[in-house]
Amino acid sequence: MFELIGVPPQALFGQLLLGLINGSFYAILSLGLAVIFGLLNIINFTHGAQYMMGAFISWMLLNWLGVGYWWALILAPVIAGAVGVVIERLLLARLYNLDHLYGLLLTFGLALIIQGLFRNNFGSSGLPYQIPPALTGGHNLGFMFLPNYRAWVVVASLVVCLATWFVIERTKLGSYLRAATENPALTEAFGINVPRLITLTYGFGVALAAFAGVLAAPIYSVNPNMGADLIIVVFAVVVIGGMGSILGSIITGFGLGVVEGLTKVFYPEASATVIFIIMVIVLLVKPAGLFGRTA
């Protein structure tokens, strides 16, 4: 079969694996964006910087405090989420009654500030982060070699994404979040603290970005530009899936990662633009996105 299409199986499955890995990061990051946009109605341009911040926090925990990878995977999102809570309370909370453009400009400015601070302190060449010993090596599947850490990234991302979807769509807490999105005044009338819910939701969205950063740290070098290079693609993924759609972010993130990987096999020249081409087509056919709802 592979000989008929002129593609060695190792190359095809290797690019599929890379596509799944990229799709894992697309899914988690777009999920965080969708959660924040769905409740706060703010396009969080700081998301890429918060992804980078998660990678740097895990690197600092490892190299400065001797905290292992597994603890860093828990602590880095918590720390980044706490920073997100402070940002929401001090800055974003003042913009909810203003035009959405103010929130976009503020988060874009914050992204530049955070990125500049890390660049000034750590440089831009990148810092290495070792794969944890438990996840080194890999398995020979016959048609390809599967590194253990890459497999872990895909599985961990899928579990976190599905768990987030379940909490938001199938639990009482999720119903509170959806109610606060639809009618915050009525939700408060039932005794639910909507401002606190909004703050914690933003912190959770930031924690998702930081979690992706920790997963990415052993694969890519930890550098201040890692978020800036990724966030534009993630925004395209969110638009294709539908702004604010949780399930759309997950399915579209993984799906577009695979499409990008296959494009690198069959038409490498288009691999850098295929997601944006799909975005244009989707917007022409269904402006609300594949899983979005028309207002």
Provide a brief overview of the structure.
This protein is mainly alpha-helical and 295 residues long. The chain has helices at residues 9-40, 47-64, 69-90, 100-122, 148-170, 172-182, 184-189, 194-216, 228-241, 246-266, 274-285; strands at residues 138-140, 145-147.
What does the model show?
This protein is mostly helical. The chain has a single domain, classed as ABC transporter involved in vitamin B12 uptake, BtuC. It is 69% helix and 2% strand. It has eleven helices and two strands, in the order ααααββααααααα. The protein has helices at 9-40, 47-64, 69-90, 100-122, 148-170, 172-182, 184-189, 194-216, 228-241, 246-266, 274-285; strands spanning 138-140, 145-147. The chain has a two-stranded antiparallel ribbon. Helix 2 (47-64) packs parallel to helix 4 and helix 2 crosses helix 8. It is globular. It starts with 8 loop residues before the first helix and ends in a 10-residue tail after the last helix. The model has no long low-confidence stretch (mean pLDDT 89).
